[in-house]
Design a protein that fits this description.
Helix content is 80%, strand content 0%. By secondary structure, the protein is mainly alpha-helical.
Length: 203
């Protein structure tokens, strides 16, 4: 029975790696599709897209954002920037914020329940042990806060690693609620200044 469980676990690890590759490819396809719609060049097209999906668009986006955190196979930075791109700065921030907070909470709880085995479904052992060592460093909580503030830090991995600590759920969510707006706004600047690069890339 244990051997069968190990085979299933190994299969799931491989499956999530494949899904990660497919998700990355899908993200670039989505970027190309948005470019073809003319969203990068014409704000009227953007408004038409938003008005066409007044309810389902935001709902689906929040679900995708939750999914990409709980099962980190989709590049989170890409989905966050797409949120600003599709919904604009205010609604994009709000939908990102809601999805990221819910997803981070669920990810933290899942690690609390299943421990290291859950993390190793998505992270290779070498990477895991490198981050696990950070738990032994003094001031780990400050490091975690800095990572949640930064728009370029490996936030999902840090959330999972933090799930192995004795940090309370209340403390964790307080940090997320206060820190995440900074990193999300950071992504908005990435979108503003990176738009020309994206336009060049999808040509």
């Amino acid at each position: 029975m244990k051997l069968e469980n190990k085979k299933i676990y190994t299969f799931m690890q491989g499956l999530f790696k494949i899904l990660g590759i497919l998700a990355l490819i899908g993200s670039f396809i989505l970027a190309f599709w948005l470019y073809k719609l003319g969203i990068f060049n014409n704000q009227n097209v953007l408004k038409e897209v938003i008005n066409s999906y007044k309810f389902w668009g935001p709902f689906i986006f929040i679900i995708v954002q939750i999914f990409q955190i709980v099962f980190p196979v989709i590049p989170g930075g890409i989905t966050t920037v797409f949120g600003f791109l599709i919904f604009g700065p205010i609604r994009g921030f709000l939908f990102n914020y809601i999805g990221i907070l819910i997803g981070s909470y669920l990810l933290f709880i899942l690690v609390r329940i299943y421990g290291k085995k859950f993390i190793l479904l998505f992270v290779d052992k070498k990477t895991f042990y490198r981050y696990e060592k950070k738990l032994e460093t003094p001031g780990y909580e400050k490091l975690f806060i800095l990572c949640m503030i930064s728009p370029i830090s490996p936030a999902d991995i840090m959330v999972m690693i933090t799930g192995l600590t004795n940090m309370s759920v209340k403390r964790f969510m307080t940090i997320m609620v206060l820190a995440k707006p900074i990193s999300i706004i950071g992504y908005s600047y990435l979108f503003i200044f990176g738009k020309d690069f994206i336009k060049w890339f999808v040509r």
